[in-house]
Amino acid sequence: MLCALISVMNMACARQLQQRTPQQRAARKTTILTKKLRLTANQVVKVKSIMLAQAVRIDSLRSHRLAGKRNHLVHKRILEQTDKGMYAVLNPDQQKAYVSWKTSRKERLSNREKQVSNP
Question: How many CB atoms within 10 Å of residue 47?
């Protein structure tokens, strides 16, 4: 029963993410990164631009659904370009914190997927 509830909550969260506009998603990520990385005002503007470009490109990718593996490769390339832009904006300490944030985020998503697939 509890697993079913968690599964329904995860689907509701996924729907909420899909309903957010690219601007809303970029603003949310920028806010999170501003706190985690202690961004300067100048960096905030640049990070928001990078995150907006990422969100727009991912929305475009979702709407044009390419064949399986190709879709994955394009998505991976978008994330790599985002990282490249982020590393250009961040100082070395912030880069380490950014990598740490991405790793913890990846772990949380992986754990969430495991909970859903193994009720």
Answer: 24
